[in-house]
Amino acid sequence: VSRRVISLPPSDSLRSNIRPWLFLAPALLFLAVYLIYPVIETFRLSFFDKTGKTFVGFSNYFWLFGDGNFHQSVFNNILWLIIVPSLATAFGLVIAVLADRLWWGNIAKSLVFMPMAISFVGASVIWKFVYDYRGDADSQIGVLNALVTFFGLPPQAWITIPFWNSILLMIILVWIQTGFAMVILSAALRGVPEETLEAARIDGANGFRIFFDIMIPQIWGTIVVVWTTITIVVLKVFDIIFAMTNGQWDTEVLANLMFKWMFVNFDYGRGSSIAVIIMLAVLPIMIWNIRRANAEEGTR
User: Fold this and answer.
1) Domain that holds residue 99
2) Which of 17, 43, 123, 279 is most buried by its number of CB atoms within 10 A?
3) Is the pLDDT of residue 136 over 70?
């Protein structure tokens, strides 16, 4: 059987090729102005002095890798990267599993998700009252110090204690991001076939075996996506540190250090070099997330 191939006139073919780009043009323009141009300009400024006019080559990067504050910021960021995504994802997963077994599970999920509706600065203000310290002779209004003094121990200026103050700041972000992890993982758990779970119960598997041997392998891809998404948030964390300590007492992170050099010291070269480091740290994770999403889409 022969088939006739009908070719469009050149003008119609040209229109069909151009039309999609006309619809995409506003979005592409917006992307170029608000994303691509700032990235290029930041990269360019990192090779110039504080005024952005005199070319200094890699001097800003040489200074950066020899600066003690940068080393402290990198160490703190690594701590945040290890602790926050792991705890937020783990808590979100446990709550997602347990809440589905309770008749008031939806209420519990709403309460856990509620911090997501609060800005990072707003959450920091709330937690300031938890960590507040008023001096040994004064009555304590901070929840943590109220508990400490209730058991007969002296109150502490928690936010000024190196290392532990960073842990206390991380708790704020874990509190916020647990709700995000719970919602995504709860939806993934609903996709686990009930027949598989029922077969495991018939074979005598207990709740722990079902959780670790069936549920987690089935939703492992979603767990990784949640973990990497929270990791990106952690790499860019700024608001909590700025509102709680402004980087004092060894709590500095890269984003806060960048803000100080860029908008307090007005050194655009050094500030831009820190911004480039943050971007280079975030970029591989974003690319990996996009590739994984495309791969999963291709298998459907």
Assistant:
1) 52-124+159-298
2) 123
3) no
